[in-house]
Amino acid sequence: MIRVLLADTGAGGLGELARRLRDAGAEVIVLGDAGPVPHLVRAVEQEDPALVGIGPDLSGAAELAAALPGRVVFGYGEAPAGTALTRVFTDPGLAADWVTTVAVEAICTTDPRSRAPR
């Protein structure tokens, strides 16, 4: 099972994405109010998710991605130009599909903790 941390950085909006990821079999941790980037980084270190999703306000995305080197960080919302995220989505269905296919395959081939065949 893939573990995904979703950080709510705005007026909600991650509920549907969280539901779709759970329906697809992911373990989802939702931070209701993500707070500043250092708070979010601590949460990621504690929860150790395979992927980190942030949204809908992506204004701090570059700072977050820089603070989490080696982590897959994706956005859900409207991204400012030059956002340093792995991917950005505006549709929860597309985001959930990506997480459960492309990202899982990438993690299984690079992360020894995945316990998946290589």
From TrEMBL:
For this UniProt entry, the molecular function terms from Gene Ontology, in alphabetical order, are: cobalamin binding; metal ion binding
Q: Which InterPro entries match?
A: Cobalamin-bd_sf
SUPFAM superfamilies the UniProt entry points to = Cobalamin (vitamin B12)-binding domain
**Designated name of the protein:** Uncharacterized protein
What is the native source organism of this protein?
A: Amycolatopsis suaedae
